[in-house]
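Please complete every field before forwarding. Incomplete forms are returned to the sender.

SECTION A: IDENTIFIERS
Entry label: holo-286
Bound molecule: zinc ion
Molecule representation: SMILES string

SECTION B: INPUTS
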Amino acid sequence: MLDEARDRLAANGARLTPVRQRTLEILLESHRAMGAYEVLDRLAAEGFGRQPPVAYRALEFLVEHGLAHRLQRLNAFAACLHPGHDHAPAFLICRECDMLAELPAAPVRDALTELAAESGFQVERATIEALGLCPACAGAARP
Amino acid sequence: MLDEARDRLAANGARLTPVRQRTLEILLESHRAMGAYEVLDRLAAEGFGRQPPVAYRALEFLVEHGLAHRLQRLNAFAACLHPGHDHAPAFLICRECDMLAELPAAPVRDALTELAAESGFQVERATIEALGLCPACAGAARP
DNA sequence: GTTTGACTTGTTATCATGTAACATGAATAA
DNA sequence: TTATTCATGTTACATGATAACAAGTCAAAC
Ligand SMILES: [Zn+2]
Ligand SMILES: [Zn+2]
Ligand SMILES: [Zn+2]
Ligand SMILES: [Zn+2]
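SECTION C: PREDICTED COMPLEX
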């Protein structure tokens, strides 16, 4: 996964430096959305800088290159689970267990783009995030 | 508009007190999304409290009662343009002029709900916000 | 009419999130 | 090698949000 990321970055003339790689690893390891300051604590504990821009820059870099996503609802970031092809997914966030799912949102986006077009509005970037219950938590709640 | 709001609130046993009413008026007057601190400045200048909770409480109240919406992407609030029937709209935000449009998002939501259901996920609340160009700004840019 | 209890408004204090501006060091290109 | 760009680190600050408490308002219950 990391090698793949590194290759794709190299093709774009971008480098997966130590902070950036470690940031990506941290996001991947936790398998959930993390706040920038949570990431920063981890980085600082491992000898990287301990000031906010260190984390924000690495996270911003990963988002720019499609290796991570930013979740508006949570003020948080998460590693992209399907990097590679440019994509603009929808996110499902479980309110019970914080599980995060990343779904290909083409049909939703198409519906939104069409809706917007009816008002003459051109959609460039869309945020589609849902809060609810994941299968596991829904099963536990109402078995 | 205000009278209508007051009536609907009364039916719910809630009161449109002076701070709350003034907060709603401020949102309505500006016709755009406003940060909580911007609202707070206006309130303070008119003799209301000048501490953050004053604005946050009034805004939260308005959102709870469907008179305003919160915009995740902007960390901001805007008056609801179609209050009354419960609704969960999609928002279009112009990146040039900050114009905000509020669209009935039923088709988009349906697509999202269906998509989520395929993974067994139950959607409870969804955030659908698009950034792009409004008709006026799109026309100006590429005439 | 007074008392009670829920609600509203205000405060202080603090926390969380995010960025601007600048100095230094590493990598690349000329 | 030297110039240039990019990357990392810092300080300082801006913005966004909430917890905890005190005091005032209002309407129902007595
Ligand atoms: Zn992704
Ligand atoms: Zn769950
Ligand atoms: Zn609305
Ligand atoms: Zn515009």
